[in-house]
DNA sequence: TAGGGCTATCTCAAAAAAAGATAGTAGCGA
DNA sequence: TCGCTACTATCTTTTTTTGAGATAGCCCTA
């Protein structure tokens, strides 16, 4: 069975005429006859009654219902990829907790304004988990810290974060090795790239296995830091956004450790849906606007 | 876009291999490549990632969802007509009130036992209305009294009813013209063929315009007859089935007026769905069994 | 009864699909 | 690192299907 045959059949059923159906679908009457005939042969049923008026038999009416479902689904599928100007469907984005909280909102707002028909789904998680999601096709794109070593992926440097040390008391210089060793560190669960930075930081101070507590949410983590539970390392912007809510203090870290780039990672552009392509556009636009601020900070 | 292309695409997505998909659908690998390539060109999107493992891109995964819907609907439509042995779908039957009450139950039971996957819908109404429904394709078949004059329809004499006069008092002979003229007659609403018989009966007694009350249900009608409201004319079997519930009495009518055949009417067999074809089989079987009783009565 | 509008059928050319053959590529193990 | 294997892409040929035109037959209407 051909989709084209179903289209012609529907046109005949609606117009009640082979000639009209042929004109409507830009072909000739003999082809309509041939398609309908083939359909009827395939299904072993007479679909149309040709006595004077052409009208569907009850078998034909039954087919109409299914043909509508089939053709509607087909049209939707095509418009998913060929939607003229306005994308539709679904966009699944993976991002780190900090990125989601601080960087995504304005971009998502702009995107939603541009593409109101796209369902947006955000999955948050640590970098390693996000990469896994992307590789498994469970998300369409991710924002992760650090370049993705995997080949065949589209990379775009999205945000430059500067990590700072966060603690519950004012700090003017780096805590001593001894202090670091006896303090706890609070980090996102295994896989978070910021956590790697914490371990790098500790290592640079000759401290190996500080106690690290794992957290799943930013609020919980900052709350515990404020309560004097220990230190954490977070992007400056994230901390500043929450600083008024918690009694926390910060300290600059050495540049080599502090600077972390967040990349937008997606498969090759050839496999992008219009929804994803449009998101990449929105993202690029937003970055051009923000770029001066980022470099100035 | 071709249904075949979607089938191949799904097979590739499932098996993760062009060769496997080709074998599964009994074709060769080069054709799978060609179909997928054409699909990708039509949609302007890369659907499959060929790096080592063949796996759908996120665009491909999006298409998978729609392809499933399309192919499922298609398969259902085909099985509607090509269902091997067991029909499915829907069967809409139109029948007169009396036929529905008296004749259909055993046939429907047998049919449902044979074809449990078919949804049965019964519409009751007077003959003229049923014919209209059939002509409009709102039912698949009807049981009506008298031959349908319309051409191009399949006719099967299903039941022979013998009409009798029903009244509230014992009758040994036909009421006088005077009695008929002053009595009311109760009938189904306009279009019922039994009603025509009533008018024929009255005419044969030289009575022209007796009062005729219209009813929509058998129970209401018999109840009113029992209450002495007037006479009615109904199939003997129908009356006998209800006689114990109502205080009603009957009288044989002249054969020329009394005998009414109920016909099974459907469009030409070429346009029958398997559900309808199977119902016709069931009906024929039931009639063969009942025939001796019918002729004996 | 003639004419207009409709569908079925036939035919031919063009397009498309199927199948086979071959070349190129990635992954795997020695 | 070198084949070996299994896979996909491409090219070619053959077969099938499709599209469009021409024509014949049918039904309805005037």
From TrEMBL, chains A, B:
Top-level taxon in the UniProt lineage: Bacteria
HTH lysR-type domain ranges (all copies): 1-57
Any coiled-coil regions, as ranges: none
Classification via Gene3D superfamilies: 3.40.190.290, Winged helix-like DNA-binding domain superfamily/Winged helix DNA-binding domain
Keyword Transcription regulation: yes
Molecular function via GO: DNA-binding transcription factor activity; transcription cis-regulatory region binding
Designated name of the protein: LysR, substrate-binding
Organism: Vreelandella titanicae BH1
């Amino acid at each position: 069975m051909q989709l084209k045959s179903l289209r012609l059949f529907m046109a005949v059923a609606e117009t009640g005429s082979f000639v009209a159906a042929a004109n409507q679908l830009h072909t000739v009457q003999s082809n309509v006859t041939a398609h309908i005939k083939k359909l009827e042969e395939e299904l072993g049923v007479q679909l149309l009654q040709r006595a004077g008026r052409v009208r569907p038999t009850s078998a034909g009416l039954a087919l109409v219902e299914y043909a509508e479902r089939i053709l509607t689904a087909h049209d939707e599928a095509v418009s998913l990829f060929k939607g003229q100007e306005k994308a539709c469907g679904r966009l699944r984005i993976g991002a780190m907790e900090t990125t989601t909280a601080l960087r995504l909102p304005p971009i998502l707002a702009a995107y939603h304004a541009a593409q109101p028909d796209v369902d947006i789904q955000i999955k948050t998680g640590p970098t390693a988990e996000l990469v896994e999601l992307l590789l498994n096709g469970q998300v369409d794109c991710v924002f992760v810290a650090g370049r993705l070593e995997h080949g065949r992926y589209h990379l775009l440097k999205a945000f430059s974060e500067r990590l700072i040390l966060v603690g519950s008391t004012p700090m003017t210089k780096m805590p001593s090795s001894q202090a670091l060793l006896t303090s706890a560190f609070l980090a996102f669960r295994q896989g978070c790239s910021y956590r790697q930075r914490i371990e790098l930081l500790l290592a640079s101070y000759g401290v190996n296995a500080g106690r690290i507590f794992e957290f799943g949410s930013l609020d919980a983590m900052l709350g515990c830091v404020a309560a004097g539970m220990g230190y954490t390392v977070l992007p400056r912007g994230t901390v500043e956004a929450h600083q008024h809510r918690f009694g926390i203090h910060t300290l600059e870290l050495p540049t080599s450790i502090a600077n972390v780039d967040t990349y937008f990672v997606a498969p090759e552009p050839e496999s992008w849906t219009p929804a994803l392509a449009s998101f990449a556009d929105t993202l690029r636009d937003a970055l051009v606007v923000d770029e001066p601020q980022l470099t100035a900070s």
